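Lecture notes, unit on protein representations.

Consider one protein chain, 243 amino acids long.
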Amino acid sequence: MKWYCFFFFLLIIMSCKKEENPYDADIISGLTANISLDGNAYDSVSGITGTIVKAIPTANRHGQTDAAMFFNRLDSAYIDFGDMLNGSVINNDFTISCWFMVSDTLAPLAILSKRGVFGPWEYSIDNHFDKAFFTCDNWINDGTTTVYGTDPLKAGAAITINEWTHVAFVGDGTTLSVYRNGLLQPGNDTRKDSLFLQDTSAPFIIGNGGGYGKNYYFNGAIDDIRIYNLPLKSTSIVQLANQ
C-alpha cells in the first residue's frame, strides 16, 4: 500500500512538471495578429499586408537573411496596416509580443502603435518616458488618460543596444506587466476599474508611435510581432522568447 501511494504521488509530481514545461505551452489560443516580418509585412491571421515605407529586409536574431525588417529613423521608415481590427486590444485582456534590436537611443523610439498622431488613441510601445526602457502607453480613445497605470508608466523592459531582445506586455484586466526575454520584470501598472480599451479607426503601425503630435520613429530591427486577445501564461511567453 505504501509503495502504491508513493508511485501515485510520483505520478502527480511528474504530471505537474510536464504542465510547467514551457515547450508544451499554448501560443496559438487567442492569437489575433501574427506578423513574422520575413522580409514582408503580412499578417497571417487577418490576411492583411501592410504598406512598407522605406523599411528594408534584414537578418533576424538567428542570422537568417531577409527574415526581419530594418527601420532607419533618419528615413522615417515604418509599416502601415491601416485600421486593422486585429491590431486593437480590447476588454483590457491582451498580450503584445515582439522581438527588437535597437541601434541607438539618441531620440525616443516606438516599436509599434495603434494611434493617430492627433487621435484617436489606443496604445504605443515606446521609450519616451525613459530612453532606457520600453513601456506600453495605453489610452482611452480620446487620449485623456491611460487605462493601465499613470504617467510615467512602471511596467518597463530595459533596452540593450545592438542586442536582439524579446518583450511581451500582458494585460490581465487587473494589472499590466512586462516580460523581457521570458523573465517577468519588476513593476506593473494597475488598471483603472472604470476605464476600458476600445477599437478605434487609428492605424496599426510598426516602426512609429508616440504621444499627441509626436512621431517616434524606430531605429533598428523588428521581428515576429504577435497580438493576443488574452493574457498569456508565463510558460507561453517563455516559449515565445525561446523561438
